Amino acid sequence: ALDAILDNDTYGLVTDFDATRSTLILRHLLLNDFAFSPSPERLVSTAATLRPPIKPMRSLTDMLETTGLLAELEPVPGESALASQSEEARYDIPIVEHPLVDQYIAYFTGRGRKFFSRWLSRADRYAPVMVPILEEMGLPRDTLYLAMIESGFNAKAYSSAAASGFWQFISSTGKRYGLRQTFWVDERRDFIKATRSAARFLKDLHRQFGDWHLAWAGYNAGGGRIRRALAKYGVNDYWTLIAHKRSLAKETRHYVPKLIAAAIVAKNRARYGFNEVKPLEPLTWEELKVDSPTDLRVIAKSFDLELSKLETLNPAWKRRISPP
User: What is the pLDDT of residue 99?
Assistant: First the structure.
């Protein structure tokens, strides 16, 4: 598409442009942003904010229109990319178009593609367990993607803030929502119990704010911090709040866009080139009650199972022995 524009006589209509700079911007828009952008016009407008200023930016829009490329880049004229996606990409969480969302989509499909592929592979293992719990407890199904950005569905994920498990509970919050942490077990790593606790926590936050974006931000930073920031800046929504760069820590200002981007990419795998991701083996199990502490290696040998499989099914166990 870029070559077509450069070879076209209409390129001569563009004036006051540094040709090299405009070419680089156009290459970026065509090869990256238009692949997922909800609005080509917004991307052109965003490019206008680059320094030093590029004038006249309208000429770039005119150039795309004159060559017929602007219409081709929009899947359905007059509709956003989100609105024109397949039946697969239906969301039950509020999706917002925002430059930070675009930024994380670009990251997940670019430099972060390798680890996002791992996230998707693990999601296929844990979604069949977690999503029914979320639905049962009255949360949107797509809340699943909060666990994705928190831990990448890694039971042993551990943060610098000492948060642990699939939903990254810190110790105090985990205990408040019923997750045992002893010498023997850390239920923050339990894919069933931690999901139920996360659902209760998120429902409490949603009751406080009446808004999922603020609830997610509260999950990351704490409800009190979000309330104080809203009061300080006199706003009542997440997006207006994060427009003030000092309102919240960068991690929290990027948290909701990151979650939305993860949902968009995960639910449109073919669109973003992830359709070849191989899912991990799904979890299936039966429960066995033991009368005394029992070594997992003994259980594995008795039932002719791989020890690693038993460990995957019992991620909350901190030892290879069943808790007393």
Answer: 94
